[in-house]
User: Which sequence fits this backbone?
């Protein structure tokens, strides 16, 4: 994983070593449903989930098809 | 860009190091948040004492001092408002990732933890800023009361 590597070089096979950290995040973004609070559905939890969704959508737009489902 | 699939542990050799640093950071900011809440509690208590000590003294400086103490108390209570209690839902983690590849789960959790850390740090900064305001207001209140007492003694 090299942060300044060639973004277009991440085809199957040896692609993993060519990925940037952001592309790795795009493959395995934060799961919004993992956030939780012992106090229930608090504003903080909703805010965190919204932030995770926004980040995931942004990465999906930037690197379509990269997310591992 | 084609999908690459889940990497093996050898392909992310420092994953464990990054995870342990984030874990330490998590403990650290929770301690700092608790510290700020504790200090806010002290300021709240001190503001209450100032208000009670001045009581019904009828002078402009006493009223200003009392008003500042009340403002300090309100600011201190406001410090406690940005709660830092969010964490991961163990049941959801289990239900959604128990059968996933280990590295995949670890990377998803790492990215979620990074996001949580960034959000919590921002809240910590807000707490610290509010605490500073509360401390300044309480100090202002104390200074006004002290100056008023000195002037009364001299005059």
Assistant:
């Amino acid at each position: 994983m090299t942060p300044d590597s060639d973004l277009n070089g991440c085809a199957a096979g040896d692609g993993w070593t060519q990925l940037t950290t952001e592309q790795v995040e795009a493959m395995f973004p934060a799961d919004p449903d993992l956030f939780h609070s012992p106090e229930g559905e608090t504003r903080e939890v909703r805010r965190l989930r919204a932030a995770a969704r926004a980040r995931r959508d942004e990465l999906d737009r930037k690197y379509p098809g990269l997310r591992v489902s | 860009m084609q999908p690459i699939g889940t990497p093996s542990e050898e392909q992310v050799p420092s994953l464990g190091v990054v995870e342990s640093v984030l874990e330490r950071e998590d403990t650290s900011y929770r301690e700092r948040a608790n510290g700020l809440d504790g200090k806010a509690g002290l300021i709240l208590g001190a503001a209450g004492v100032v208000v009670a000590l001045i009581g019904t003294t009828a002078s402009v400086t006493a009223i200003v001092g009392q008003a500042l103490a009340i403002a300090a108390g309100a600011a201190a209570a406001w410090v406690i408002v940005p709660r830092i209690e969010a964490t991961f839902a163990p049941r959801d983690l289990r239900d959604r990732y128990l059968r996933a590849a280990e590295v995949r789960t670890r990377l998803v959790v790492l990215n979620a933890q990074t996001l949580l850390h960034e959000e919590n740090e921002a809240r910590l900064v807000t707490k610290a800023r509010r605490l500073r305001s509360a401390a300044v207001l309480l100090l202002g209140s104390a200074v006004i009361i002290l100056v008023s007492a000195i002037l009364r003694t001299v005059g």
Summary: The CA atoms of residues 33 and 125 of chain B lie 10 Å apart. Chain B touches chain A through 32 residues (CB under 8 Å).
